[in-house]
From TrEMBL:
The keyword DNA-binding applies. SUPFAM superfamilies: Winged helix' DNA-binding domain. Pfam families: Rrf2. PROSITE patterns: HTH_RRF2_2. InterPro entries: ArsR-like_HTH (IPR011991), Tscrpt_reg_Rrf2 (IPR000944), WH-like_DNA-bd_sf (IPR036388), WH_DNA-bd_sf (IPR036390). GO terms for molecular function: DNA binding; DNA-binding transcription factor activity. It comes from Paenibacillus selenitireducens. This is Transcriptional regulator. GO terms for cellular component: cytosol.
Length: 130
């Protein structure tokens, strides 16, 4: 199983915003430089995070991005789903009538992973850094 690079950048971006919260907004250029990614690519990721209601865009000379939710409420799962969506990781391609036994195992594993990601907040990572 592998998440896209966009998810990697989104998680790191959110960590930077949480670490900086509630100080002034951080510009896309600065966020991109921190991660070594193009500002254009990061802008697309930031747009998804804005649409998911986790961050907001602030216009003006001192503009940029900042959290729009309480930092203690943001989980790994929130960010991953904002970027990847919430479709199941495994879909059985065979018609078995009853639920596929393989599908059942995969679904259970996915539920456990989602539970872990839902219960892990980015603020936990900030606390580990200090």
């Amino acid at each position: 199983m592998k998440f896209t690079k966009a998810t990697n950048y989104a998680l790191h971006t959110m960590l930077a915003l949480i670490d900086n919260s509630p100080v002034k907004p951080i510009g896309v250029q600065q966020l991109a430089e921190i991660q070594g990614v193009s500002p254009t690519y990061l802008s697309k990721i930031l747009t998804r995070l804005v649409k998911a209601g986790m961050i907001e865009s602030v216009s003006g000379v001192n503009g940029g991005y900042r959290l729009s939710r309480k930092k203690d409420d943001i989980t790994f799962l929130d960010i991953i789903q904002a970027i990847e969506g919430n479709a199941s990781l495994f879909e059985c391609n065979f018609v078995h009538g009853e639920e596929c036994l393989i599908q059942a195992v995969m679904k259970e594993a996915e539920e456990k992973m989602e539970s872990h990601l839902k219960n892990t907040k980015l603020t936990d990572m900030v606390q580990k850094k200090t």
